[in-house]
Amino acid sequence: MHKGATIQKGRVIGLEYCVEEPTAEEIYLSVKELGLECELEEDKQHPCWHCIYPSGRVKITLYGEDGKPLNEEFKNKRALLKALKPFVEKHKAELIMKRKPAKKEKKKKGEKKELTEADVYGVGQSRHRGGKGKGKRGKKKK
After folding, report:
1. Statement: residue 22 has pLDDT above 70
2. 86 located within any domain
3. Best label site of 7, 8, 25, 89, fewest CB within 10 Å?
């Protein structure tokens, strides 16, 4: 379903049905919304994708014990993947809204900043003291 993947890298449907960087969580929520049985395994992933794509795997039960599809609308994996696009896009937007950090409050004029240990002892501050930094070549000889 990844729009950036090629067919050689494992994309099984056309680009018009793909989504930009879908996560396993988004796919899991989408499949649940369609009413299919599925299981999210966050610690699993395809071996050649370990650095490229977000981790996670979704195991979906498409067929019953008798070998017949559980849902007649999704007779195979490709039919399911083609139907997932609008749901994945919806869940992607929802998850982005949940993950957005809250806005920081601006301090008012005249309000003093509380000193931290780093401010007092100079921890993590740069040693650069300013100046022009010309070194030996920049100095003029008299």
Report:
1. yes
2. yes
3. 8
